[in-house]
Amino acid sequence: SCFIVDYLSSASDIIRTIRDPEKPNTLEELEVVTESCVEVQEIGEDEYLVIIRFTPTVPHCSLATLIGLCLRIKLQRCLPFRHKLEIYISEGTHSTEEDINKQINDKERVAAAMENPNLREIVEQCVTEPD
Fold first, then answer.
1. What is the superkingdom listed in this entry's lineage (predicted)?
2. Which of 27, 28, 52, 73 is most buried by a 10 A CB count?
3. Looking at residue 2, what is its pLDDT?
4. In this predicted model, what pLDDT tens digit does every residue of 38-79 receive, in sequence order?
5. pLDDT of residue 38
6. Number of other residues whose CB lies within 10 A of the CB of residue 66
7. Measured between alpha carbons, how far is 32 from 26 in angstroms, rounded to an integer?
């Protein structure tokens, strides 16, 4: 199904330009996300499950939750098709991966985080396309 391929490249293109919250680099440049970290499955008629597995730069990265939030917000805004989104830390690459996975996949926690003006500003800076 060529749709899946289109959706894969679409999702990859969307996340590759997200910037790291602390560095001037993009997540792709830091190898936090790669093309192979995106998986797309068809789950219904015209609906797809997009799974992202990202790798924090260090196992105790304090920004992992924030990076997950940036991935989610950017994809929710930019994916051109109906989708469910699951975002995980690559297995074994973070000391608290289970907690973080729960947080970034919990709609209420994500909504609460985005209501925090400081957090929202950081997320916006990371997800806004460079001019």
1. Eukaryota
2. 27
3. 67
4. 999 999 888 899 999 999 988 888 899 999 999 999 999 998
5. 94
6. 20
7. 9
What single letter denotes the amino acid at residue 19?
A: R
Residue with tokens 């609460």: 112
Residue 101 · residue 95 · CB < 8 Å: no
Whole-number pLDDT of residue 35: 86
Across residues 34-40, what is the average pLDDT?
Answer: 92
Write the DSSP string, the chain: -HHHHHHHHHHHHHHHTPBPSSSSSBTTTTTSS-GGGEEEEEEETTEEEEEEEE--SSTT-TTHHHHHHHHHHHHHHH-SSEEEEEEEEPTTSSTTHHHHHHHHT-HHHHHHHHHSHHHHHHHHHHHSPP-
Decide: 75 and 41 in contact? Cβ < 8 Å. Answer: no
Domains contained in the chain, CATH given: 2-127 (3.30.300.130)
Q: Cα separation of 33 and 52, whole Å?
A: 8
Cβ–Cβ < 8 Å for 39, 51: yes
